[in-house]
Amino acid sequence: MIKTMSKKRELEWDRWVENAEKFPDKEAIIHWVAGEEPFRWTFSSILKAAESFAVGLKKNGVERGDVCAIIIRHNKYFYPIYLGISSIGAIPSVLAYPNPRLHPEKFTQGLEGMSNRSGLDWILTEKVIAEVIEPIILKEKSTIRGMFFPLEWGKNLKFEGKDLENIEQIRANIKDIDPVLLQHSSGTTGLQKPVLLSHKAVLDHVTNYGNAIKLNSEDRIISWLPLYHDMGLIAAFHLPLTFGIPVVQIDTFEWVMIPSLLLEAISKEKGTLTWLPNFAYNILAGKVHDDELEGISLDSMRMFINCSEPVRDKSHKMFYKRFKEYGVKPESLSACYAMAETTFAVTQTPTDKEAKVLYVQKQSIAKGVIELNGDDENSRTCVSSGKAIDGCEVRIVDEKGNDLPENYVGEITISSVSLFDGYRNYPEKTNAVLKDGWYYSGDYGFCLDGEYYIIGRKKDIIIVAGNNVYPEDVEDLVSHVEGVIPGRVVAFGEDDEDLGSEQISVIAETKILDETTQKKLKLEIIKAGMTEDINIKKVYLVPSRWLIKSSAGKPSRKANRERLVVKNETITWS
Question: For residues 321 and 509, is the Cβ–Cβ distance under 8 A?
Fold first, then answer.
């Protein structure tokens, strides 16, 4: 194991080495696979394995500052591969592995987009998908220089002689302001925005967020979250590794098929912390059967942290009602507001209190003013995401960027010690959201008694089960379906109370009048969405020229949604 000798700054590698020296035999990552005995990395063994992969990377030409995209399935060696990349001053970037639900063209489109704009240098993957990736590497605009298969490398390599001297020198020269990781904002388009973060940004953030949730040496994190998402990567990977506490990693796709895996892991490993998108509460409450809960105890959990989607009180209540007899406590139902651009968390609710709930008049929210009301049909239930954590400052502003007082709805802007410097190779997108050191999130919310409530998106992004779906993608797809008038489509999100998330709805103009043929067209639209892994829940067909245009000359999503869904206007066919 190799130490960085510099005392002038601290890198994540320094912290990992320190933890390995202090707690050599303490569990670091417990790798779970359904039906198998978990594989347990200790802090010393994972660093030793990371060193071996670092040797392999250097032998294959990886240099300091190179971006190494990891496209590997749930595998126990993923973690030391990631650490090994960072240990030589290269930059890891976790990308989603293609799965059965994702059309192959969608995967290649996304990777090609990132290869053109994100500045990927190397792909670390598995041979089974090499044929899919290789044509992308060979394309003219691709920045990718090569592809490796680290799972097939030797596992006990060591730096020796001049190689040892060189790597020690490289580590000594790395600065805390140098980049430590590249993560991509979530979305459905190939051109996801790349966020580059420094050692200092990540270390400052995990320190401040660790304080906010009162992280301690007895904590044990349980996670099924994908590591290509900031919630999984920061909260369930960098945070525990930096603090020297264990984390249990469950395969995301196994959890989707068997949601009870999370509860089993919590019970067996005595978990204390987990982060979940809102839809997961509904899935756990609705799809875990009694026979899967035999012997399950959840009383070790001090925080279930709701993050990544608007927090819904109904989901919390369903979850608590289902699992209170297994040890879930009301005060363990917590919430957080986070994003990749601020490394992760911006706000967090207290560790020993249930997240606050407000009942706000719907009409007042529409006017941008918060007026509290009773719990009835005229109220919208708003759940607090907590107060700003240390190192973060939050403002609510109007359309001109002026500060709004408490109880007024506006855009959430953030200043943070862990704020990103901009989207890599996207100056136009960076200039649109970074102004005078403040990040304009595009989220709408309000502040009351120092706590922040997130109520929606400034733009029309639809959040479906934790994933951002861009309406433009859906509209373009549907416009190509035969029978739909091209360009005369709007897509938007509709709340699905049963799922606890939004679902995609589409309004499409057509000249087809026959009801039987219209039913077939609706089915074709839904099928078109499925080819792109977009699940369209509802299709509203309307006659030609029905859609209202915005001032920009495009069909207005907001106006047409209100016309059809809120006002329930009758559609007249002639």
Answer: no
